[in-house]
Amino acid sequence: MSSEEERKATKLMNEVKLVTSHVPGSAAAKVTMRNEIRGMFITEGIPSFFVTINPADVYNPVLNVVAGADIDVDNLCPHDISYDAQTKLVASNPVVPAKFFNLWIKKFI
Predict the structure, then answer these.
(1) What gap in Å lies between CA 73 and CA 34, rounded to an integer?
(2) Could you tell me the CA-to-CA distances from 62 to 52, 69, 103 in Å, in that order?
(3) What helix, strand, coil percent values describe the chain, rounded to 5?
(4) 45 Rama sector, left if φ>0, alpha if ψ -120 to 50, beta otherwise
(5) Which of 44, 68, 86, 107 could form a disulfide linkage to 58, CB 3.0–4.6 angstroms apart?
(6) What is the number of H-type helices and E-type strands within the chain?
């Protein structure tokens, strides 16, 4: 290609990018959004991400292990422990779900 043809091709590609920058999902639209986000870093600062962890203790068999139940964790099926038994365990001893939550959060962090 000659340099004149390269300049024409580059000009055409820039025009295509300009037109497609408003087409959702196009490569040019993605570049435009990335540039907007980078600009927001300057004006708003780098974003902070927060995670809220809420483990469902009444569905988790680990709660029974924390409560001291003798459970074979390696051969555990989800249907082995009933929801009713879990809720009764949680209601009867509030320390068990607190220990479960503490264990879960420590393992997450």
Answers:
(1) 46
(2) 20, 10, 10
(3) 65, 0, 35
(4) left
(5) 86
(6) 5, 0
- One digit per residue, pLDDT tens: the chain, 109 residues? 578 888 888 888 888 887 888 888 888 889 989 999 999 999 999 888 888 888 788 888 788 888 887 777 677 676 677 788 888 888 888 898 899 889 888 988 8
DSSP single-letter state for residue 81: S
> Would you say 63 and 99 are in contact if contact means Cβ atoms under 8 Å apart?
no
Reported as type and span, the H/E element at residue 44 is: helix 27-44
pTM, two decimal places: 0.47
How is residue 13 written in tokens? 């590609």
Distance CA 31, CA 36 (A): 9
Does residue 61 contact residue 16 with C-beta atoms inside 8 Å? no
